[in-house]
Structure formats: C-alpha cells, structure tokens
Amino acid sequence: MVKEKSEVLLSIHNLETRFGSRTIHHGLDLDVYRGELLVLFGGSGTGKSTLLRAIIGLDKAAGGSIKLDDEELSELDDKGWREIRRKIGYSFQSGALFDSLTVGENLEYPLREFTKLPAEERKASAVAMLARVGLPGIEGLYPSELSGGMQKRVGMARTLMLDPGLILYDEPTAGLDPANSKMIAELMRELKESGKTGILVTHDVACALSVGDRIAFLHGGKISVVQTRSDLDKAPDERISAYMNGEIE
User: How far apart are CA 171 and CA 14, in angstroms?
Assistant: First the structure.
C-alpha cells in the first residue's frame, strides 16, 4: 500500500552526483514512504548504486538535498554520519564480509563499533540473527567456506545487527540460483512486514515484483516515472515495461 505524504521517511530533492567530470544525477527527486519497499529500476550505468551510496554518505552529493526524518544529511559532520549509519543499513552486492573474520565475528563487528554491549551479548545477538536468516550454527565458519547464497544472507544479517529503520539493498539476488533468490526475497518481505523501509536496486524482475510496493525508473540522471504495483499491473508505463522485457539493459 502506498503511504501518505505525511509519512515520508526519506526525501531526495534536486540531487546532483558526479564521478570525476561526469554528472551521474542532476535534478533527481524521490520520496520514500515509511514502511514501504521501493524498487529502483534503470539501465546499466544510470547510477542506481551511486544513489544508494549517496544516501548513506559513501559518495558525497555534489548538490541538492537528502533528508531522513527531516534531517538534512548533506550538512552532517563525521559524528553525524556515524549516528545516521546506525539508522540506515546497506546490503552490499558482494556481501562485503571480512575474509579474516569468522561469520560470527563479522556479525559482531557493527556491535563492537557502535555499541557498548559486552562480548557475550554480542555473540548471542549474532547467533540469534543467523537463525533469523535461516543459517543457524555457522558462526564459527569463515566466508570462504560459504556458498555465494550463504554469503549474501550473512551480509544481510550483518546489515540488520543495529536494527536499522531504512535498508538499502544493492542487487541482493545477483548471481544466485532460484532457491537462494527466493530465500532473499522472503527475507526482504519479512523485514517489510516488520515495519522496515527499504530501497531495492535490482535487475531481478521477478524478485522486484514479488516484494516491491512501488517501482521507480531512473533514466537520464532523474527519476522519470514511479508506479505503484497495482498501477503497474493495470497500465504499466512503457519505460518500465521495456526494462522488464529486457529491452533496456
């Protein structure tokens, strides 16, 4: 269900981002409603992942406004960004696990960095989170001992350790077999049902349609169209249809 505008959690206005001399986004506007999962479609090189990185401050915006709960993120100092990153989870496409740490230590890492929880509580939280993502008992393994699908789920588990209100999913099912893709989609659906807000960047049309509340299409540095799932079923925009049919890479 599409939320009312009074429930906007994340508001992006007139955003500009650059990579060297190249402008990626210019005049990009997008609102994300509290409790929804918004899917971001767009061709290769249109800056979908760059947008996620700008939201969490990994890439600095060249202009415009990004507000989370009415707090302007572009004005934050290092301390401010540290606090914001407790509220925003980023699920990296690669999983981004530390190879030298066990699975359990990977999950404990954000708790060591951002909380004062004692070691036993950190370990217990990691064990509980692994069970939540369907991977109980693997806390002593290393990332190299896991399949690609397991690494993705461990990466998502680490993203959830600080209980963020907003989760950024960057191609969470890329390279996975259908069974693992289904598990990831089910986890995203469960998180949405628990009240989490999400932005999903994906080329996986089946996953997007199974979990998304709205579909936004990024083209020419801007969001060119946004449709609800019901509108998409009734009268899909031709750009979104072309993307879903593989006519736009």
Answer: 25
Its pTM stands at 0.92
User: pLDDT tens across 155-195, in order?
Assistant: 999 999 999 999 999 999 988 888 888 989 999 999 999 99
**Domain-wise residue ranges, the chain:** 36-58+89-244
| Nearest Cα residue to 30 out of 84, 68, 75, 76 | 68
With a CB cutoff of 8 Å and minimum separation 6, the contacts of 166 are 9, 10, 32, 68, 87, 88, 89, 196, 197, 198, 199
Given this structure, which CATH class describes domain 36-58+89-244?
A: alpha beta
